Amino acid sequence: MATMLQFPSSVSTLNDYNALYPDWTQREVSTGTTIMAVEFDGGVVMGADSRTTTGAYIANRVTDKLTPIHERIFCCRSGSAADTQAIADAVTYQLGFHSIELDEAPLVQTAASLFRDMCYRYREELMAGIIVAGWDRRRGGQVYTVPVGGMMTRQPVSVGGSGSSYIYGFVDSNYKPAMSKEECLKFTAEALTLAMERDGSSGGVVRLAVISEQGVERQVILGNQLPKFSTV
Amino acid sequence: SAPAVKQKGVDTVRYEGGVVIGSDSRASKEYVSSRMFCCMAGSLADAQAVTNAVIHQLSFHSMQMEEPPLVKSAAAIMRSFCYTHQDELSARFIMAGWDHINGPQVFTVSLGGIILEQEFTVGGSGSSFIYGYADAKFKPGMTREECLTSTTNALTLAMDRDNVSGVIVHLAIVTEKGAERQLIPGNKLPVLQRLA
């Protein structure tokens, strides 16, 4: 940020200079977040919250964390906003090139592998947790998770981001194999709402995307329309 | 700071006639009085020292009042310890039980000395995984059986995800009549995960 005179906290000054500059000028932009993706027969449902924070300030309360990589492949981003945007841009370029060479739509696994290669190679510099999901002709709807560190694995349902720890129990108990598209949408919306209630870094609206052979359908669930759980 | 003995899953919920307190095998549930239990999380050394001091002070208080102690008295004594020594302690407690004035109550006394009465609460290292489940499942006005099932399910889910929580579920049900304990061994736990 602009030139700032900043003393390390071990140095005591007559005035507290660090307090003159608000918290958000000194913090990196983070998508501390909750992201989720579920496979169903015929496609995938992806969901994310919409909060981007710089320290205690919410830099963007209506962020779109569901980023298109190709026509039927999206990724959900969590971690450092800068890192994930840069990686997504690079992978979009690489995948587009690859798709032209092949002269057909790329596989979701290819996209996930590209993410994994980048996240693993630069693991020391990056802070990115990504869920790649989409539909292709060979294997239908698929969800791959590429968490911090650069591993890649396919899962029928995957959650990520800082808010995800609060919903592991809910997701474990409520996921059933062979759910329909509507059930997946409801399940994702409920899980994200519960995480947003508990995690300070997640909030705003719930953004959903359904990817199938027919294409991509996007939805937004606004704050007052979120599912309600009885609060005590 | 003191190395916290990394904790376990603890889950406590109140229903019309009593309180259900669940914990996994590694968590500590301390018997405070005939109708009160205290669950500890965090640095166990700190937690045990505080709990012993509280039980000591509570028994004197109860003798002076000439009646069984109230849950909120126990929680208040615990809170004053945690607040006075907040810089040295790193422990978190759930004080739950039944008394003749206010019926079943659940209090959580946290780091720094905050006291909160709640309908249900979760604690320990495995608790972060079940906040979502607990928020969705626990409603006011549940019956005893619903409380028992939900508590067991919540603990099972936490033990499935948390590598330092495990194996069996201890339940204590405290009502006007006293405390009843149950133990559910690992092979009898509900199977909730359908992810292969």
A few lines on this structure:
The complex is a heterodimer of chains A (232) and B (196). Chain A has 232 residues and is an alpha+beta fold.
Describe this structure in words.
The complex is a heterodimer of chains A (232) and B (196). The mean pLDDT of chain A is 89. In chain A, α1 crosses α2. In chain A, strands 1, 4, 5, 6, 7, 8, 9 and 10 form an eight-stranded antiparallel beta sheet that branches. A five-stranded antiparallel beta sheet of chain A has the order 11-2-3-12-13, with helices on one face. Chain A has 232 residues and is α+β, with helices and mostly antiparallel strands. Chain A has four helices and 13 strands. Chain A is globular and about 55 Å long. Chain B has a five-stranded antiparallel beta sheet with strand order 8-1-2-9-10, covered by helices on one side. Chain B has a five-stranded antiparallel beta sheet with strand order 3-4-5-6-7, covered by helices on one side. In chain B, a hairpin with a 2-residue loop joins β3 and β4. Chain B is built from four helices and ten strands, in the order ββββααββββααββ. Chain B is an alpha+beta fold and 196 residues long. The interface between A and B is medium-sized, with 25 and 26 residues. Chain A: It catalyses: Cleavage of peptide bonds with very broad specificity. Chain A: Keywords: Cytoplasm, Hydrolase, Immunity, Nucleus, Protease, Proteasome, Threonine protease, Zymogen.
